[in-house]
Amino acid sequence: MEWIRPDSPTYDEARKLFNAMIDRRPAVIAKCSDPGEVAEALRYAHNHNLDVAVRSGGHSVAGMSTNDGGLVVDVRPMKTISVNTEAKTATAGAGLTWGEFDRATQQYGLAVTGGRASTTGVSGFTLGGGSGWLERSYGFACDNLLSVDLVTASGDRVTASPGENPELFWALHGGGGNFGVATSLTFKLHDVGPTVMAGLMLFPGEDATDLSRAYRQLALDAPDAVGTALVYLTAPPEEFVPEDMVGKLAVGMAYIHAGDVEAGEEHAKPFKELGPSVDLVSPMGYADFQCMIDDPPDHYNYWSADYHNELSDDALDVLVDSAQRLPGPNSQQLVARWGGAVAGPAAANTPLQHRGAAWVSHPFGLSETREGGQEAKAWVKQFRQDIAPHTTGGVWLNFIGDEGQDRIMAAYGEQNYRRLSKVKAQFDPDNVFRGNQNILPAER
Fold first, then answer.
1. What are the pLDDT digits (tens) for 204-250?
2. Cβ neighbours of residue 224 closer than 8 Å, sequence gap 6 or more
3. What is the 3-state secondary structure of 400-433?
4. Alpha helices per DSSP H over 222-368
5. What angle do CA 237, 240, 241 make, to 5 degrees?
6. Among 204, 183, 165, 78, CA closest to 126
7. What residue ranges define each of the domains in the chain, with the CATH number in brackets?
8. How confident is the model at residue 373, as a pLDDT?
9. What one-character DSSP code corresponds to residue 243?
10. Is the pTM of the predicted complex or chain greater than 0.85?
C-alpha cells in the first residue's frame, strides 16, 4: 500500500478532485490495491482518531471523497475487470471509471447503465443509484447489481447479494458509501453496441421555447429503448458549430437508442425533423457516446437536481428563462427523460423514492474561476427556487452538493430512511463512514 502525506511530491495530485471548488488537505491518503489494504487503512484511521473518506473516481460534486485532516481510502488502484460473456456478467474493481468499464465490456457488445461522464467512478456512482443513458432500457446501475464485496468499519470483509446479507444488499441500491468500502461489484450485462445510433443535435437558442415543447412530446412518445435529454448550453467554438451560433445560447438534444442501429435511425427521425443546425446523431461506438459530454477538468462546479412528474408549459418557461442566464460558457441546464425501466419492477427493491417521476432536471453551474464558481452556485440555487412549484420533492443524491439532511430524507422517504438506519447500525454503528450523504445509525 502507498501512503501519501503532505510532504510527498505526489500529494497535491493525489488529493485533487474533478471539482476545483473542493480544496481539502487530508492528513494521509492510503492508496489501496486490495481488501486487506483497505482494512489496514481503516485500522490506521481508528488508531489515530482520523476521520475517513473514501475515494474512487473523485466525482462527488460535494467533495465527499476527501476531507481535511483525515484519512482518504483511495481505491483507484483496484482496476481489475472480469467479463463472463456466457453469463453476461462483469465483476469490476472499485477503482474503475465508467470509461474503463465500457471499453472492456464493449469488446463483447455488452454494457450496463453507466455514468454520463466517462470519468465517473463505477463504485460511487452505482452505490448512489447510478443514473445514465441506458436507464430507460435497463434501469439504474444498482438495479443490475448481482453482488458487492466490501470492507466494513471493523475491517471485516462481507459480501452482499440477494442470498447473503440481503438487507445490506438492498441498502447498497442507492444508500451510497454509508455501510463500508466497496472493493468489487458484479453486474449483469446487456446486449448493447458496440455500434449504436446516438449523438447530439444543436438548435439555435432563440427557438428554445418552441423546441422545448416539441422535445417534451417527442421524448414522451419515444420507446423505452430511447434515452434522451434536453440540454441548454452555450454553443462551443468547435468546427462543427456554425460560426453565427458560437458563444450564444443553444438548445441541445442528446439521443441514444440501446437497440440495433436500424431501429435507432427510425426512432431518431422525429427529432431530426425538427431541423437541427448541428446533427451529430449517427451510428457510433457506444463507448464513444459515453465520453461525449464529459465534464471539463479544473472547473469550479456546483450542481443540483429535482424530479418532475410532468413538464408543464410553465415549468419549461422556468427552464428556458434560467437558460437565458447561464453563468459562463461551460454551465448547462439538463432535463433527462425518465420512465421505462426506471419505474419498472426493480424500483420496489431499492430505497430510492419517486422513481415514478417522468423527468429529472439537473443544472450544472461551472466556471474556470473561483469567483465565477460563486456566481454559478447562485444561479443553481435561484433555479431551484424558481422550479420548486413544479417538482415532486424527490432528489437524486449523486447529482447534488451538500444540501443538508432534509434533502437526504427526501431521497429515501421516512420509511426507507428508518430501514437504512437499521442497516447502518448493524454495519457501521459508530458512523465511521459519514463523509457522504449521511445516514445516521439507528439507536440501539
1. 999 999 999 999 999 999 999 999 999 999 999 999 999 999 999 99
2. 136, 137, 339, 340, 341
3. CCCCCHHHHHHHHHHHHHHHHHHHHHHHCCCCCC
4. 261-272, 286-290, 313-323
5. 50
6. 183
7. 2-74 (3.30.43.10), 81-191+420-427 (3.30.465.10), 195-399 (3.40.462.20)
8. 94
9. T
10. yes
